[in-house]
Amino acid sequence: MTTTLFSREITYGKEAVAELERAAIRVQLLYDRTLAMLHRHLPDSLWDSWIGVPYDIISSLYKGDNSGGTVFQKWIQSPSGWKCIGCERHCLEADPAAEEGARKRRYVFHNGFRQSMVLQAVIWSLYENTLLFHPVLREDSFLDADDLELVSSYFVPTYLTDRPLRESGRISKEYREQNIRVYQEWISAPDLELHWNGGLTEGRWMTGVYMNESRFAGLGPYLKDAQGKRTYMKAMVQ
Q1: Which of 34, 20, 24, 55 is nearest to 214 (CA)?
Q2: Which of 35, 113, 150, 151 is most buried by a 10 A CB count?
Q3: Which residues contact 183 (CB under 8 A, 6 or more apart)?
Q4: Do the Cβ atoms of 224 and 76 come closer than 8 Å?
Q5: Is 145 helix (H, G, I), strand (E, B) or coil?
Q6: Which residues have C-beta within 8 Å of that of residue 45, sequence separation ≥ 6?
Q7: In the chain, what are the domain boundaries?
Q8: pLDDT tens digits for 89-133?
Q9: Helical spans, DSSP H, in the chain
């Protein structure tokens, strides 16, 4: 079914917004915990090659002192409910070109591949292994019962190899950057047709959720066309 719009406005029900807010906060806290765990255990060389952004920049998003930036989580309203497929990070970093008296920091956009897709794969691996070894691990599990419920409800199967998805007959989407590949199960998003400025734009309806230091900061819906270009919309709540 295709939704046709004649203005750049998407309407969400109050219950949907409330669910997204609750889920996005929990997802962000799990992201943060997992990144902190990886930083403690990964050698610097592996952190740099897999994540690609210094930990002190990413962790500044959660200090609660307004020193961080914004996380843009990417959600799809799939046939089986809301699913988070990754995130992007807009971090505050020092601006070496700033003039005297000018703002000393600037927002730098970090696309979500290494900081997000590898993280999604790590969390999904933790989820599957916790289900497998939970009788042995018990309270020593990195993920507790609430975390398992969160991942099961809102995450999408994501791997560093396509074998699990291929062998189970599921369609996957490949994300690639240099020598790193991530495979995520493909899930359908609502089709959207937007008539505006005398033209027609078609694509998939995606929902961005803005997070600021692990706090919900609003919705940023967008239409994503076949080439990956985004047309951002305005979220209306009723």
Answers
A1: 24
A2: 151
A3: 158, 159, 160, 161, 162, 165, 172, 173, 174, 175
A4: no
A5: helix
A6: none
A7: 19-96+103-187
A8: 766 555 566 555 545 555 555 555 677 898 999 999 999 999 988
A9: 14-41, 44-50, 55-59, 112, 118-137, 145-154, 163-167
